[in-house]
Amino acid sequence: MTDRTIPVYVLTGFLGSGKTTLLRRLLDDAKSRGWKPAVLMNEVGEVNLDGIMVDASVPMAEMLGGCICCTIRGDLGVELTNLAKEHKPDVIWIESTGVAQPLEILDAVTEASMYGKLELRGVVTLVDARHLLDRLRIGSGKTFRLMQDQIRVASLVVLNKTDLVGEPEKAELQERIAEWNPAGNIVSTVNAELDPRIIYDEPAANFETGHPHGPHDHMESHPHHDHDHVHVFTHYLHGAMDSHAFERFLRELPEGVYRAKGIVTFRDTANRYLFQYAYRETDFLPIRPQKTVHDVAVFIGEDFSKADIGSKLEKLSGRTE
Ligand SMILES: Nc1nc2c(ncn2[C@@H]2O[C@H](COP(=O)(O)OP(=O)(O)OP(=O)(O)O)[C@@H](O)[C@H]2O)c(=O)[nH]1
Fold first, then answer.
1. What is the ipTM of this complex?
2. pTM of the model
3. Measured from the CA of 97, which atom of ligand 1 is nearest?
4. Which of 10, 11, 21, 165 has most ligand 1 atoms within 8 Å of its beta carbon, as the pocket-test mutant?
5. Which residues belong to any copy of the CobW C-terminal domain (predicted)?
6. What is the distance in A from the centroid of ligand 1 to the CA of 118?
7. pLDDT tens-digit readout, 151-166
8. Domains by residue range for the chain, with CATH
9. Of 139, 174, 184, 224, which alpha carbon lies 20 to 30 A from 200's?
């Protein structure tokens, strides 16, 4: 396979936390680097007000009238795939509605990576400092739990609107965020002002990208971050595998992997298969794709070694280099 993998980043955070503010910065930054970005926006309402705020020259897909993670989840894959095919961007940003369940979004994005060469590289969670402080004081409730969930899955937490809280409160919030997500990075901002390099320098052990101007060419190894929070590992397979060996590999996946899925070809079967793995259960569905799909395996979990899984798969698919 010669075509490159497009890195995908998810921007999440509760309503009004500063996602669009950050997105605009990231798009400006991408432009100044000579990258071609694309954006997928999801609004709960029927009108995409955030989209109006974004430079009209940026390719953008909109998913309106629902939340990515529930009502229109299936469309996410289609939209992402279309964006990638049509515009061949260097990077895709997904701005999700402020009420989305983050794990569901990750699931949907990884689903999409089965149909095109896309790889989720980071989840950036915006937090409204004052809002979180208020919720902390109350200490319960649906919004509080959602904010916590959004923080937990982040590779980077942006504690935004710190101009609206005092220094001691800011320190308290940082401490709590670090408790909920010990491995994620935290940055405190006003108007989401940050150096985008902290986003792109997030570790990723799987490197398919060979694009000279892509965001990740310089980041081959940060193994110390390899195993520390909920993360997604996408591995494109290079050849057919033995079905029994692959089943054994799934059975022996580390505890930390709680979800895996993908498309595989076996040497010893006639069909290709869509495989699913969830809570140690596996399922294989024979498929006959109408269009070209790559063999790929996606893993979601905590505390597992991407490098280890990657090298096992390389062996299974007969790649020796
Ligand atoms: N005081 C203050 N206001 C901010 C800061 N960052 C963003 N804002 C303002 O907060 C409002 C919401 O910001 P957005 O970037 O639209 O937030 P969002 O997360 O995209 O909002 P939704 O799309 O509704 O979920 C805007 O009016 C911003 O100008 C900050 O650090 N401090």
1. 0.98
2. 0.69
3. 25
4. 21
5. 230-317
6. 29
7. 988 989 999 999 999 9
8. 6-200 (3.40.50.300), 229-316 (3.30.1220.10)
9. 174
